[in-house]
Structure formats: structure tokens, C-alpha cells
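Please fill in the sequence for the structure shown.

STRUCTURE ENCODING:
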């Protein structure tokens, strides 16, 4: 949209699958009702993170006619077959199967990557429709009651809302095979056209933990390890922009590290950007300082666009924002004000807006910590009076490690966090 393109963004919800059914049975709840509660919580979290809503949010349970029709057409074209109430896709009929993941079907079979099922024509054939089982929700179909397989639902909803060809398809890199591979096989076998022109696969989240020796280790987020952090827990202590910076600071295809120190660093960087929006204090409206600022502003947008055009290189795009922030602060210190200064701040807000940064001062623990910070400043002042400079410096340095910067002047000590 920043480049003037019209965007149709579809995010689909799988509101019936094995995990949901098992969880609902364990809780004694209706699977569809349970899924709806998850969907509602998810959308509330998106809103709290200031994430733009998708154009449409289709759900599997609301798309059964489209899914069944898709399967019927695959059967008619010879790409699928029914077997005892189930329907399977013929992978051997797709000559290019494995093109996304770079896998060879023969090698996959020899590597025993598939479950053996006597009803299948080929071990790699995957389910498009699953026959009804006791205790599971089911929908009527030409093959009997049942529900869709994992992959077909995405192809059917994509075709229904985006047409035969889409520009960008996203997802985690753990979905390349088999999910996205099977989406391609289904969709291109039906339409004869390229399913998705571009694929965006993000790396997985890793939790960074600091060890006693000062080094760090990375591990997956899991309840068993006790390192799960929910979005709502994060937002109780930090603004949404801080989490956005954590994500944007890394190349999206790489693993994403998350940890206390990483968040603290991004909170400090967020404050740097906010500092660039502080009002001008001088009266300089022309001269060398103004020219330098104007030049910096003119260079920022092309550099930002070049970074984003380079496979969404958000870390470089952020570097452009930080550089513009630095130039604004230098100009302010030089007394620059007027239209040049206003234009620079407007551009800073605009580029931040493209990345979804609101620059709002969200919830923070700083206010709660303020009395303790003031107490440490008083203690440090007493140490300086007693000429205990080594201890005084230790207090200052430890406070800096915690994200509190002290600025000494003739009028006293100021702090910011």
C-alpha cells in the first residue's frame, strides 16, 4: 500500500483439525465453539499489537462447499481418488511434485517419509477428505460424512478469495513440506497455473536465556521448559512497538531470538526514535545545519525503499530510520527549527508507520521504578560528596546496564530510562 498497490490480504483459520478435536474432547467442549474462542483471542491480540487486520478471515467450517467442490474437480481430472470414505491426492500424477522443497518423490519413498496405508495407490498420497470417526464433527459429502484434510482447505479458500494465482504466500519455514508443497500440487493440478509467485517463509522463534557464566543459549519456547511468554504478558510490561522492533530487527527468514536483554535493547532503541520527535528548541531556519538535515531527509526514503525491496530487509530499513533520527537530533542540538525540522520529523513518522510503529508511549514499569531510581541517585550523590568515586561510578554503570542513563550537570543529575 505504501507503494500505491491495492492489497487483498487473506488469513484463514483452520477451526477443525486433530489438535482442536482432541483438546475439545479433553475439555468436554464443542470443537467449533472452542476454535471460535481461540480465533477471538487471536484477533484481540492482533489488535493490541496494532497489526492491520486482513481483508478477510475465512474459516474451514464456513468453506465446506468450496472445499468439497475443489475435491470433486480433482477427482474429475484424475488427480484424486476415493477409498473407503476417504479421498487421496495422486502425487505420482504431478510430475513436478517436490518443486518447492527440492525433494524427489522417489527419494522420499525410499527414506520412508510416508505412512504405509494399503488403501493408497502410492505411499506419498495425502488425504483430501477424511471419513467420519466416532466423537468427531463431520459434514456430508459425496464420499460420506467426514471433514477436510489439512492441505486442501487452504487451496480451496485461496481459490475462493484470491483466484487461481496469488502474488505472495506466507508461513513458517516448517510448513514448506509437506503443507505448502501439497498446496501447490493441489492448486496447480486443478488450474494449470502457478499457484503463488512468491513465497515468504519466516524462521522459528527461539528463546534466549542468559547462563551463570554470562553466555547465552537458545532454545524453543515450550511449557515444559517454563519459558513461555504470552503476548498479553509482554504488553503488561512493554509497549507493542517494542515487540515489533524485536521482530523487525532480524531478517525474517532467519530464526528469531527473543529474551529479556533483547527486549531491553529494543526498548532503548524505541526511546531513541521517540527522542527524534522531541520539539525543536532553537530558532535556526537556514544555513549549513539546515542543509545537512534536508539532505539527510532526502536520502532516507530511497534507502528505506531499497531495503524493503531487498526481500523485506527490515533490519536495514530500521538502520535508515535510526540514521534519520540521529540527524534530527544533531539538527536540534544545532538549533534547527522551522519547516525543515518539521519535514524531517514528518518523514520519520511516515517511515515508522510503514513498519507499523505507532511510537505511542505504551504501558511501562518506569513510573513504578522512579522512586527507587531517585533513591539510587541520592545515594550516588552522597558517595560523590564522600569522594567515593569508584562506588559512585559503579552505581552509575549498573544503572546503565539496567537501561537507566544518568546525566550530570551543575543543576543536578537527570535520568532517563
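FILLED IN BY: designer on duty
SEQUENCE:
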Amino acid at each position: 500500500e505504501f507503494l500505491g498497490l491495492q492489497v487483498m490480504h487473506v488469513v484463514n483459520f483452520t477451526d477443525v483439525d486433530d489438535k482442536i478435536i482432541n483438546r475439545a474432547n479433553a475439555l468436554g467442549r464443542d470443537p467449533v465453539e472452542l476454535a471460535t474462542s481461540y480465533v477471538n483471542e487471536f484477533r484481540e491480540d492482533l489488535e493490541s499489537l496494532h497489526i492491520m487486520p486482513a481483508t478477510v478471515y475465512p474459516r474451514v467450517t464456513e468453506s465446506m462447499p468450496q472445499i468439497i467442490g475443489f475435491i470433486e474437480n480433482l477427482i474429475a481430472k484424475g488427480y484424486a481418488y476415493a477409498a473407503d470414505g476417504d479421498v487421496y491426492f495422486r502425487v505420482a500424477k504431478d510430475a513436478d511434485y517436490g518443486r518447492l522443497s527440492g525433494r524427489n518423490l522417489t527419494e522420499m519413498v525410499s527414506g520412508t517419509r510416508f505412512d504405509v496405508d494399503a488403501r493408497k495407490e502410492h505411499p506419498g498420497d495425502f488425504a483430501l477428505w477424511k471419513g467420519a470417526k466416532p466423537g468427531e464433527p463431520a459434514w456430508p459429502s459425496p464420499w460420506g460424512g467426514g471433514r477436510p484434510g489439512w492441505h486442501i482447505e487452504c487451496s480451496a479458500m485461496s481459490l475462493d478469495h484470491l483466484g487461481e494465482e496469488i502474488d505472495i504466500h506466507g508461513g513458517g519455514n516448517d510448513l514448506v513440506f509437506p503443507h505448502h508443497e501439497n498446496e501447490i500440487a493441489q492448486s496447480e493440478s486443478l488450474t494449470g497455473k502457478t499457484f503463488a509467485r512468491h513465497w515468504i517463509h519466516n524462521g522459528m522463534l527461539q528463546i534466549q536465556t542468559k547462563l551463570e557464566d554470562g553466555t547465552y543459549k537458545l532454545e524453543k519456547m515450550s511449557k515444559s521448559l517454563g519459558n513461555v511468554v504470552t503476548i498479553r504478558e509482554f504488553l503488561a510490561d512493554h509497549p507493542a512497538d517494542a515487540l515489533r522492533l524485536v521482530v523487525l530487527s532480524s531478517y525474517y527468514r532467519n530464526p528469531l531470538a527473543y529474551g529479556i536483554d533483547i527486549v531491553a535493547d529494543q526498548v532503548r532503541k524505541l526511546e531513541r526514535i521517540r527522542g527524534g520527535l522531541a520539539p525543536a528548541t532553537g530558532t535556526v531556519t537556514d544555513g549549513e545545519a539546515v542543509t545537512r538535515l534536508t539532505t539527510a531527509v532526502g536520502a532516507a526514503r530511497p534507502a528505506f525503499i531499497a531495503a524493503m525491496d531487498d526481500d523485506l530487509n527490515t533490519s536495514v530499513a530500521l538502520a535508515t530510520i535510526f540514521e534519520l533520527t540521529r540527524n534530527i537530533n544533531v539538527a536540534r542540538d544545532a538549533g534547527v527549527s522551522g519547516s525543515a525540522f518539521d519535514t524531517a520529523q514528518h518523514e520519520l513518522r511516515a517511515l515508522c508507520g510503514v513498519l507499523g510503529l505507532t511510537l505511542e508511549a505504551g504501558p511501562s514499569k518506569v513510573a513504578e521504578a522512579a522512586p527507587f531510581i531517585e533513591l539510587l541517585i541520592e545515594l550516588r550523590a552522597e558517595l560523590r560528596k564522600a569522594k567515593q568515586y569508584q562506588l559512585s561510578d559503579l552505581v552509575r554503570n549498573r544503572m546503565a546496564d539496567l537501561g537507566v542513563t544518568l546525566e550530570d550537570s551543575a543543576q543536578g543529575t537527570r535520568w532517563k530510562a
